[in-house]
Amino acid sequence: xxxxxxxxxxxxxxxxxxxxxxxxxxxxxxxxxxxxxxxxxxxxxxxxxxxxxxxxxxxxxxxxxxxxxxxxxxxxxxxxxxxxxxxxxxxxxxxxxxxxxxxxxxxxxxxxxxxxxxxxxxxxxxxxxxxxxxxxxxxxxxxxxxxxxxxxxxxxxxxxxxxxxxxxxxxxxxxxxxxxxxxxxxxxxxxxxxxxxxxxxxxxxxxxxxxxxxxxxxxxxxxxxxxxxxxxxxxxxxxxxxxxxxxxxxxxxxxxxxxxxxxxxxxxxxxxxxxxxxxxxxxxxxxxxxxxxxxxxxxxxxxxxxxxxxxxxxxxxxxxxxxxxxxxxxxxxxxxxxxxxxxxxxxxxxxxxxxxxxxxxxxxxxxxxxxxxxxxxxxxxxxxxxxxxxxxxxxxxxxxxxxxxxxxxxxxxxxxxxxxxxxxxxxxxxxx
Length: 432
Hints:
The protein folds into three domains: 2-143, no CATH class; 150-299, no CATH class; 303-430, Sandwich (Immunoglobulin-like), CATH 2.60.40. Helix content is 33%, strand content 31%. The protein is built from twelve helices and 25 strands. The strands form seven sheets. It has a five-stranded antiparallel sheet, with helices on one face. Strand 1 and strand 2 form a beta hairpin.
């Protein structure tokens, strides 16, 4: 009878423990501790056990920490952490909140579901141990919480408020300066003959220059002993003066990011480099960002395609105009003009295109050709090959090209020929 009674008591105890565990596990949200809050600006402390076995304050910080000094609330996760599951607990997590319970103010608890395989252990925040440790640390370290927070609030009110005002003022000045700044690309041509071809590309790039960075907010991140904060307050005037000087530098001499333009220049046959940043300069009373583009000398030659000069010739009857790509003929007379052939002269190469009766070009009085004739229609394959060349800057300065046209035409039944040929330096053609 006694044995039955003992078994009954034991079962009741086990059932009560299980029910208690289930209830405890259900409370898995962060624990909220209520302490009287002091001050307007956040300070934090870290605590740890000293050699004496008592908790002490190891650090004060205005950035982050274990404990918010203002209200002594934990600045870390106080929610339940699942540590192991299953009947054999073979998946135990090796994390601080599960294995370093005392250091993290936690206790290990157990929960059980409807089946044995649903048993698991979890780590729960121990509010009592935490409160005891915090009070012990403050007492052992003789830390006057109210005084420390009051002094820090006074510092923030005096110096950080000034710094914020300086920052906003200089930020506006900085942005206004940028709006009134002109971006100017300058070319240093180490290769000898690329400069003129860059002009249009660089004009388009001006709008892509972006501001890199502006003035930074005042930072006084401090972590250490109470002495470190006393030193922060003592050096505040000096630090603020330096910050103001730095802000002035940002507003007057700041940098800009440059777009990635290497591919753009490579696509048109250049090896060019640009600086990563460029400073604003005052030039002729205006604010200018001069950005130097360097055409590198290591690329000593360049592939030139369609090397044809601009050309024009005329007589009293017709005018021929060639823009380097195509030509147009104007009839200046009061009679009908029939063009029977056009010849192109390229050094010793002559390429003639004849127009028979079906394709003859006829121009009414005072008119011009409706559709320009492309050079590819007039130049032979030999001439087109000669017009594509690889050259250095020295070759461009040295070599010459004789180029011209001849037009055979008739007006009022009379045949006439318009012919002219000129000599050009290759450098002059490239500069167009």
